[in-house]
Design brief:
Chain B: It holds the Pfam family nos_propeller. Chain B: GO terms for molecular function: nitrous-oxide reductase activity. Chain B: Its EC number is 1.7.2.4. Chain B: This is Sec-dependent nitrous-oxide reductase. The complex is a heterodimer. Chain A has five helices and five strands; from the N terminus they run αβββαααββα. By secondary structure, chain A is of the alpha+beta class. Chain B starts with 5 loop residues before the first helix and ends with a strand. Chain B is globular. In chain B, a hairpin with a 2-residue loop joins strand 4 and strand 5. Helices cover 9% and strands 42% of the residues of chain B. Chain B is mainly β. The chains are: A alpha+beta, B mainly beta. The A-B interface holds A 51-52, 55-56, 59, 63, 143 and B 549-550, 575-577, 624-625.
Chain lengths: 205, 650
């Protein structure tokens, strides 16, 4: 049980990486931007890859009538997400400590992981919904009103995950370091559950 | 060169014709040509290996080219107004061209030189001199903008300039046209002994600021070119002079009579100490000192008065003359500092002086003469050797750092490679035509990059498609990495490049600024956001603090301007991205447009003369909606009551 609990503590502590490293990365490529332009999504707000990238993305977006990128105080997510992630990390560490000193059941580890997965899916859903709104809810006075082959207004929504052509840009949307740390951490908590379970079964046998 | 009459050109043409028959290197074909093409080919999107900064001569500016391609990258305005950017026209930069004679819109830029640390190019700044209204400018190699110009009083024809000592301690300026010092009304024919040729020493501070420390009041010969000692000869400066005859008319004949003129050897460290200990006399001299600040984006001009004048005879062991044959021009010091090469431009030989021998001669007081109280050293006893009959009309020498020197010959129109060990000629290549200066990147330092040589030719004739009587000058690029020089390409250069300075691109390219931080903009009329844009009236003076961002001005409709107003447009470019300038111009403005870099503020004045509604627009194709980037100013009669109003999207 000892090693399982330590793995649980390490795994959930890896969530704290999100307070340092970005969760997601969206980068844009076009010939006029030889060194690229893009932003990193952190738990508590957006950050340009280069100093003035956010302003420059807004500058580009104004042609197609997209709103300006949100400041931290303009989206509840940027104040709630840090609390949720921080809370879950502390909870995971706490459960791990209980495992270490009180020998609670590894099922608690699994429960934590399931809650984390549900929260993760909700987070992704929310993120996607924001991008849909941001990419389709356009200023009716937009300078350029583009339509697809069927005459429907073009959506400028970046992909949730992957690469997509948007007008003259190629947009890449992928997880960043913080997300990888979280993913690996969650995987570790699953390992903690398996290891803990095995130990318990051998102990019981 | 100007002193050499047209008959010389005739000789040049003759010699060239004979040369042409012997050495027809122009008609290589097949495999050879394609390998030459590869050597100068820089693939699309790739960068050149070297920056080359060409003086513009009578353009007053510097042009920047890449080597080996020869592609022109930029023209940096220095001493001349430049409508492309508004330099010298904008309210902020007019002060850069201020002098003790008032505003001078033009200059004659000659010799660029890059700052050095420990004798190697450090790529902080490039300096360049102005010949006509004696000045030195300092250009930042981070912004490629002129940051400072200092005028040199009591001088005329600042040609022997702007050469930098090996730790950028000092930069020198000379006097090519001896003049009364101080200036006064006197008969020209009384010049002998009365005219002077002051040499100016300008110190460079850590932040680049220039200060005129002292002037060395030399006898009135024409000080033509200079180079600092380096390595072992660091602490000395060498100047060539002609017209030791002190002739004042028909100079081409009368200044060519003496068999020998002089190289002046100046121990500047001694004079610096002398001045620091209170030596020298305060002398009159009014000069402008203009400084551009890239935070306020404005230049200020300060008129200064007085200079420390040093009599060379009063500083023991500091100034000597060395005889040199036939009206010398170039004066070059090899990377080791051992050899000083003087080129008598009417001579067929090159005189190479030995620094150690010079020092010994000074110690032994081995003087053959005295000229106005300045000891003259013996020619023979300071000579390291003579390069005999290398060509006709030697001008300038540069070095490859591999023990070789390369000298240009104006009259015989060629570059000659010779050995610093044996003084033997190793190779010669024709130039097209009549080469003046040559440049090896880093050639004026302890560590030349001995790969390419650029010859700057004075005569272009038929080298390119004809463009009427007036032609751009022509440069030629040689590969000097092998035993023999190989002519790779021709490319036209702007104005008259007298000299150039080259540096490996990687020393400066990553430090090149991409835009100015808007948050650091301290211009008093900057509008750092559209919310800060405003129009204010003070009597008949109206200040419009206007912003630009793709693709509109704010405000873009202005009413309440009256005929007779003096309207200042202060344009702040809100962009914070690389290469997104916006321009501004308005119909009826009696000045140039301005091109405003991201984060920068620039201003022009407009004095509306007629009632009406007058458009202004962005002059730089900034974006897809550049054509829409425009606005209107309503101008009403002098006594109208139209209220001041400024709007955007109302």
């Amino acid at each position: 049980m000892k090693s399982a609990s330590i793995i649980m503590i390490v795994g959930s502590a890896l969530l704290l990486g999100l307070f340092i490293f970005p969760l997601w990365s969206i980068s844009l490529e076009a010939p006029q931007y030889p060194s690229g332009i893009g932003m990193n999504i952190h738990l508590d707000g957006l950050q340009g890859k280069e100093k003035h990238d956010l302003q420059n993305i807004d500058g580009l977006n104004h042609y197609i009538g997209m709103r300006k990128l949100p400041k931290p105080e303009e989206m509840w997510e940027f104040s709630v997400f840090p609390k949720v992630v921080g809370g879950m990390a502390l909870l995971g560490i706490f459960i791990g400590l209980l495992g270490l000193f009180k020998g609670i059941s590894p099922n608690w580890f699994l429960t934590w992981l399931i809650i984390m997965c549900v929260l993760g899916i909700l987070g992704m859903y929310d993120f996607n919904a924001w991008m849909v709104d941001y990419g389709t809810n356009l200023d009716p006075k937009a300078i350029m009103k583009m339509t697809d082959a069927d005459g429907n207004p073009l959506s400028y929504k970046p992909p949730l995950f992957g690469t997509k052509h948007i007008l003259n840009f190629v947009a890449h949307s992928y997880p960043h370091t913080g997300a990888y740390m979280m993913g690996f951490g969650m995987f570790l908590t699953f390992i903690a559950y398996i290891v803990g379970n095995k130990k318990r079964k051998t102990n019981q046998a | 060169m100007n002193k050499i009459g047209k008959y010389v050109l005739g000789i040049a043409a003759l010699i060239f014709m004979t040369n042409c028959g012997n050495n027809n290197s122009n008609s290589n074909s097949g495999a050879m040509s394609s390998s030459k093409a590869e050597k100068v080919y820089v693939a699309p999107g790739e960068h050149d290996e070297y920056y080359a900064f060409f003086s513009g001569g009578y353009s007053g500016n510097i042009t920047v080219a890449g080597l080996p391609s020869g592609r022109m990258l930029k023209e940096i305005p220095v001493f001349s107004q430049f409508p492309t950017s508004g330099y010298g026209y904008s309210e902020e930069t007019k002060a850069m061209l201020n002098t003790s004679f008032g505003f001078v819109p033009w200059g004659d830029a000659h010799h660029p030189d890059i700052s050095q640390t420990n004798g190697e190019l450090d790529g902080r700044w490039i300096f360049i001199n102005e010949n006509n209204t004696p000045r030195i400018a300092r250009v930042s190699l981070a912004t490629f903008e002129t940051e400072e110009i200092i005028e040199l009083p009591n001088s005329a024809g600042n040609h022997a300039s702007s050469f930098v000592t090996e730790n950028t301690e000092y930069i020198v300026a000379g006097t090519r046209f001896a003049v009364p010092n101080p200036q006064r009304d006197m008969p020209i024919s009384d010049m002998k002994g009365e005219f002077k040729g002051p040499l100016s020493f300008v110190s460079i501070a850590e932040n680049g600021r220039m200060n005129l420390e002292f002037q060395l009041n030399m006898p009135g010969f024409n000080y033509d070119l200079a180079h600092p000692g380096r390595n072992k000869s660091h602490g000395w400066f060498f100047f060539t002079s002609y017209n030791t005859e002190e002739a004042n008319t028909l100079m081409e004949v009368n200044a060519s009579q003496n068999d020998k003129d002089y190289v002046a050897a100046v121990n500047w460290k001694k004079i610096v100490d002398y001045v620091k200990n209170g030596g020298g006399k305060k002398a009159p001299g009014t000069y402008a000192h203009n400084v551009y600040d890239d935070k306020t984006h404005m230049a200020t001009s300060t008129m200064k008065e007085g200079v420390t004048m040093v009599d060379p005879r009063e500083v023991e062991g500091a100034v000597f003359y060395i005889p040199i044959p036939k009206s010398p021009h170039g004066c070059d010091v090899d990377p080791s500092g051992q050899f000083i090469i003087g080129s008598g431009k009417l001579s067929t030989d090159l005189s190479v002086y030995d620094f150690d021998k010079m020092i010994t001669a000074i110690e032994n007081k081995d003087f053959v003469d005295d000229s106005y109280g300045i000891p003259v050293l013996s020619y023979e006893n300071t000579l390291a050797g003579v390069v005999t009959q290398p060509g006709l009309g030697p001008l300038h020498t540069e070095f490859d750092g591999q023990g070789n020197a390369y000298t240009t010959f104006f009259i015989s129109s060629e570059v000659v490679k010779w050995s610093l060990e044996t003084f033997e000629v190793l190779d010669r290549q024709p130039t097209f035509y009549s080469v003046g200066h040559l440049m090896i990147p880093g050639g004026n330092s302890r560590k030349p990059f001995g790969k390419y040589l650029v010859a700057m030719n004075k005569i272009t004739k038929d080298r390119y498609l004809p463009t009427g009587p007036e032609l751009e000058h022509s440069a030629q690029l040689y590969d000097i990495s092998g035993d023999k020089m190989e002519l790779l390409s021709d490319f036209p250069t702007h104005g008259e490049p007298h000299y150039a300075a080259g540096i490996r691109a990687d020393v400066i390219k990553d430090k090149s600024k991409k835009y100015y931080e808007l948050s650091e903009n301290e211009h008093p009329y900057a509008a750092k956001s559209e919310a800060e844009a405003k129009v204010t009236r003070n009597g008949n003076e109206v200040h419009i603090n206007m912003t630009t961002i793709r693709s509109h001005f704010a405000p873009d409709n202005i009413e309440g301007i009256k005929v007779g107003d003096k309207v200042y447009f202060h344009i702040t470019n809100l962009e914070q991205d690389f290469d997104v300038p916006h321009g501004f111009s308005i119909i009826g403005a009696n000045t140039s447009e301005i091109l405003v870099m991201p984060g920068q503020t620039k201003s022009i004045v407009w004095e509306p003369k007629r009632e009406g509604v007058w458009p202004f627009y962005c002059t730089d194709f900034c974006s897809a909606l550049h054509q829409e980037m425009q606005g209107y100013v309503r101008v009403s009669g002098k006594n109208s009551n139209v209220p001041l109003k400024y709007t955007l999207d109302e």
